[in-house]
Amino acid sequence: MARNVNFDLNYPLMEAGLESPVDEEGVHDSFNQLIAEQSQNGGISDAYELQQLQRELDEGRDDVAYLSSPGHEYRGRIKGRQDVEWDEDERQTDPLIAERWSSATLRILSSMPSRTIGRSRGAIISQYYNRTMQLRRRRQSRPSIKDFSRSARPSIRGYGIEADEADGEGTEVSKRERLVNNLQNLSVTDRVRMLRAMPLSVAEKSELRRLALQKEKQTLSGSKLPCCSRLKYYIIIAVRQSWYSWLSFLSSLQLWQVPLKRVSGRFGTGVLSYFIFLKTLLYFNLFLFLVTGAFLVLPQAVHPPVLPAGRRPFSGLELLTGAGYFSDTVMYYGYYSNDTLNKSCKDDGAVQNDPVSNSTGHDCVSKSLSYKMSLAYFFTIGMAFFFTCIILVYSMSKSFGRSFRIDKSHSILAMKAFCSWDFKVIKKTSVKLMSENICTQLKELLAEVNHKRVKNTVGQKLWRLMVHGLAWAICLASTAACATGIYFFSDHMHQNLQQSSRSVNQNPLLNEASLLALPVLVSLINLLLPGLFNLAAWMEDYESPSVRTYVAISRNLLLKVSVLGVLCYHWLGRVASDPSSIGLTCWESFVGQELYRFLLMDFIFTLLDTLFGEFLWGLFSEKVLRRRRKPAFDIARNVLELIYGQTLAWLGVLFTPLLPAVQILKLLLLFYIKMSSVMMNCQAPRKPYRVSQMTTVFITLLCFPSFLGASVCVTYTMWSIKPSASCGPFRGLKTMFEAGKQWVQEMEKHDPKLSVVARAHSYLVEHPLFLFVGAGIFLLVIYFHSQVVDGQRKIISLLQEQIENEGEDKKFLITKLQSIHEQKRTPARRLTSQDSAC
């Protein structure tokens, strides 16, 4: 049965890619190359025969049936019948196929690139038979074209290849057998790639694969292998199976793989991005903990300093305040000494263990392995921040490339619908998780495809602009008020510390408990103010859920940055500038204790929010208010809480080397608590939406406001603020940077050839220009990478638009050509009717 050709771009066959085969140009190029080679080798008759067949096909195609499937239409032409059956739906929807094409139109259509090869199964098998032959010729010499039967030669256009109806079926069977033989001789990778590229149905591809495997097994079973070859074959199979089992075991060791799939299936990519970001922060803190633990905590714990008498016992309040018993441990800066730790000292065969040595005896020092704590502290903190910066920049650049997709939602939807299922999954739980995940992703893609922008009038635009301005004014005013309140309250707490340091009768436990007032106030503001931001967003009534999420993130970010700015001024501007006024002998340990308290209070208030804001509110709305819907997960607030806590950890690693360990424990507990709360107390958003760029936004916020601000504060502390004179590894120095300067000077004294190192240290470390240049280079790399990705997106969007325009041009030209032909054919019909009347 012949069918006419549809040129509508929205026709489903066009979208499925059935109108033109894959890599047709490669087929024609290889065919022309084959003709040229055979012409040079003396095969002029065969090349002439193929070229003559090309001319005949170009000249003699004025019939409608030539546009149909070549094998079927030729057999139908031999039988002498044309069965043209039209579908009424196609007749109504597509005006281009409303009637039969003329011969002039058919000539134009047959010369189009998409019509140069037929779509019959015989032509496809012949085409891919030649491709498999090309793959085989890479390993062996190319045979002559005379060795091929005519049916096995490459089809020029796929029309008229079979000689008659009786030979058509046998030729197709022979082609299939040759194709199976070639597939059998190919490697597994080439065979899979060739089967994927064939424009056949899945059933036919499976049949070809089954025949190739069956023939390969018959060949292996029929051949008598020697004992050594058979043993080698079994060893290779065993090694391959063990390797695949090992890869499967490694993939199963991924952290939180199953819970993340469960969250993605039920709540979508928005909630999933929060837990992925939490996992990323866990890795960052694990890196910091390993670095500080290996180079700072472990050496000092092995060689502990001499502690002062009168150490306070453990009372339990230290778990909340971080002070008291914990003040004289490796947790804080003040515990670390400025001594040189020596492993051993050998003198005249005797071994003398001297863990801590301040002597400068050259005979002993030259034979011992020394470890200077001030240098270790300085370079460990500096290199930890440097490598963290590199990892952040790399992660952000990779995330830019992954998130800014250049594919349209229609193409992603098609790939997700037809190519997303993993057939290796056999467990019922895994199948259920995968089906839920695909279903949620399809909902998000469909919501993005069906999203329509509402065109508002001028009055409506003005009204929305006024509402947005009012909401932003409320949010900015409340943020400024909270930052001002924290500033004055911290000043009040500082004055109280000054008064308590002058008083004679003071209760240490009461003083430690009073230090929790400022962290409690800040955590309470961070808990309550995002509710006001959500109320303002409800008043604005955003149409897009993703836009609402990004606006909430920006408002919460302003709050966190303002709060952290006031706190950094309080610690570095008030406490560090005059520590003796509040009775501190080691202000670095006090700042570390403050950061510990803030981190702990943030975790406690997060738990309270999870309990009262999600669990109890869900029960109240379900039991009392009789609402079926549960509260949605607030992505913006929870993500900014993670960034706030990570900023505190980065700020405190200089004063509390074990603070990353506290942050790791906090993140682990927070993951399981939030995961349970989301699965029990929350539900998916009403409007599904895809957030492909949200992870990139999170990494960017973590890099620039968070890490950059923490780096600036730590660098300022090490560069400009004078360390405590009675504690820490930098006691007796004007700044922490002088530790590196003294080390370079000592190296220059011992070996004058190292003066280049001293000059390099003075220019690269002591001057701030190098840090600004390095930061500028990192920013330029990120900027250029984002611009390249944006340029690629624009180019591909222009190419897609050009393809659509070319399709419209083809439809227009075909319609015009048909109309002109109808105008020419109408007078001829009139003359014929007049002659018949006469």
TrEMBL record:
By its UniProt entry, which InterPro entries does this protein fall under? TMC, TMC_dom
Q: Which Pfam families match?
A: TMC
Entry GO MF terms: mechanosensitive monoatomic ion channel activity
Give the UniProt entry's GO cellular component terms.
plasma membrane
Note the topology in the membrane.
Answer: Multi-pass membrane protein
Q: Give the transmembrane ranges.
A: 271-298, 375-395, 462-489, 515-536, 557-576, 596-619, 694-719, 769-786
Keywords per UniProt: Membrane, Transmembrane, Transmembrane helix
Q: Which residues form the TMC domain?
A: 586-692
Where does the record say this protein resides? Membrane
Q: Give the family this protein belongs to, as stated in its UniProt record.
A: Belongs to the TMC family.
- This protein is called what? Transmembrane channel-like protein
Q: Which organism is it from?
A: Acanthochromis polyacanthus
